[in-house]
Amino acid sequence: MYEVKALIDSAQQILLLDVRTESEYTGSLGHIDSTMLIPVQDLTDRISELKPYQDHDIIVICRSGNRSRQGTKILRQAGFKAYNMAGGMLAWNEMKVEKHNEK
To answer: b/e string for 9-30 if b means 16 or more Cβ within 10 A?
Structure first.
């Protein structure tokens, strides 16, 4: 999780791709700023939308890491450099709480 945060904070060209449903994306777990939303069930049909990011590292995000694992596999099979964000938004939010408590 901290690796993803470091990538976000770096100058590297990355794309954060959230593969949850729209209601989850706007729901209680929230989302990471500047993410693109394409639900995993639509990913194969909408993969052309990601062509501008062919040379970027794509970090795939979901609630807990299961759907993002599936999305990562779809993207890799299509020739993208994709990585699963293990733990998903649950781990992301936990990390944010830990950082807040350290202050």
So the answer is: eeeeebbbbbbbbeebbeeebe
Residue 80: which residues within 8 A CB-CB, separation 6 or more?
50, 53, 54, 58
Full domain range(s) for residue 83 = 2-102
CATH of residue 34's domain is: 3.40.250.10
Q: How many domains does one find in the chain?
A: 1
Amino acid letter for position 72: T
Res. 8: pLDDT tops 80: no
CA dihedral 72, 57, 47, 38 (to 10 degrees): 70
The pTM assigned to this predicted structure is 0.88
